[in-house]
Task: inverse folding
């Protein structure tokens, strides 16, 4: 009985030892596999990071080739929303590279001023078309633009036009008119203008199509929901096009800027004082134009490239949480400023009224 029980104990012990040995082999094996997978992952991340840094340095710091622009993208470039802000500054940079420009926007006096500004600086021709991309008569609008562009060899289309809400806010505080405006201007204009001008570029086997998206489209951005969604549309639109027409000789580009000081940012005083983080349209465009043909998707301006890296690295929940906080703050700022302006307006009205009364009283006394 003793011998019998000892042999059972021995075999159980032996079995346990055997299992422990096998387990430690297996563990060592998996540890090695995990270490190799980890090393490959780290190497992949490091090489991606390095190539991004090298690309950014090459694009933004070493300098941008500006030769053969007319040959590649000329003789005409069309810039939507080109009367002010980024569109105007971008057109200015294209003119510096020898391209003739057609500007499109609503306000004729602003268009005239932009034309005069560019033509007085560079020996190019600037024409303009007065067009409201939010117009209710969408079909007629694009027929009219097509007719006006019929005699031009357009080698570059810059889909710049875009509108935002008056200030960040939640969906139900935005009027339906404003929402249609965002859809027609931010999505419709880029789609229809590209559809109109791409065929002639394909025929010539060269040209360029640029869309201006936004950093707000890297994730869903609460309190700018529709704006950021329309900008995400542009990302997908240009990516799909670049694939469909990859053998056409045409250059496609998606610019992804963050804050730029233009009238679109008028709702916030703070945003206009961020220094390099929020450059002027001229500074932004000078940098962004030179990236055409060098990068398919870029922020276009070095400090924005850094912001784009961070934006892409943060998880969705963190982005949404942070942007809701920032946008709520900016909304409060805009509302406070509106209120102050209204109070000032009321005060002005009261003081004007008092002046009128005083004048009437003194007139009565003098009679
Ligand atoms: N500013 C930023 O911080 C920022 C950041 C990221 C992306 N973006 C994008 O960059 C692009 C340019 O923005 P921006 O800041 O330069 O804007 P902006 O200063 O407000 O200029 C907008 C331009 O579009 C024209 N426009 C507006 N509504 C129009 C309509 N319904 N039909 C035709 N033209 C119209 C305006 O001229 P009229 O008034 O004469 O029509 C103006 O020329 C936009 O796509 C915007 O989404 C801007």
Result:
């Amino acid at each position: 009985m003793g011998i019998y029980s000892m042999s059972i104990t021995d075999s159980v012990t032996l079995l346990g030892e055997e299992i422990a040995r096998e387990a430690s082999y297996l563990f060592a094996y998996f540890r090695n596999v995990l270490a190799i997978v980890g090393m490959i992952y780290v190497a992949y991340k490091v090489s991606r990071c390095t190539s991004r840094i090298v690309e950014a340095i090459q694009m933004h710091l070493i300098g941008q080739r500006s030769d053969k622009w007319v040959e590649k993208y000329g003789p005409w470039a069309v810039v939507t929303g080109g009367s002010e802000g980024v569109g105007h500054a971008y057109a200015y940079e294209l003119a510096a590279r020898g391209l003739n420009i057609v500007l499109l926007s609503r306000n004729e006096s602003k268009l005239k001023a932009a034309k005069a500004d560019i033509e007085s600086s560079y020996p190019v021709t600037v024409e303009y078309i007065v067009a409201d991309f939010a117009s209710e008569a969408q079909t007629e609008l694009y027929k009219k633009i097509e007719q006006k562009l019929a005699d031009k060899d357009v080698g570059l289309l810059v889909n710049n036009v875009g509108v935002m809400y008056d200030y960040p806010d939640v969906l139900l505080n935005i009027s339906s008119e404003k929402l249609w405006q965002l859809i027609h201007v931010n999505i419709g204009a880029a789609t229809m203008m590209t559809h109109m001008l791409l065929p002639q570029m394909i025929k010539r086997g060269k040209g360029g199509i640029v869309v201006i998206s936004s950093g707000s489209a890297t994730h869903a951005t609460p309190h700018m929901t529709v704006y950021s969604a329309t900008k995400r549309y542009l990302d997908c639109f240009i990516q799909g096009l670049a694939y469909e027409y990859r053998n056409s000789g045409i250059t496609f580009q998606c610019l992804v800027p963050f804050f730029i000081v233009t009238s679109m940012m008028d709702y916030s005083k703070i945003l206009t004082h961020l220094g390099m983080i929020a450059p002027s349209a001229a500074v932004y465009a000078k940098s962004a134009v030179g990236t055409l043909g060098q990068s398919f998707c870029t922020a276009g301006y070095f400090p924005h490239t850094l912001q784009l890296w961070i934006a892409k690295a943060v998880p969705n929940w963190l982005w949404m949480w942070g942007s809701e906080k920032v946008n709520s703050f900016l909304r409060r700022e805009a509302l406070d400023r509106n209120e102050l302006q209204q109070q000032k307006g009321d005060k002005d009205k009261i003081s004007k009224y008092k002046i009128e009364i005083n004048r009437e009283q003194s007139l009565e006394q003098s009679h």
About this structure: The mean pLDDT is 90. Residues 2-62 form the longest helix (61 residues). The radius of gyration is 30 Å.
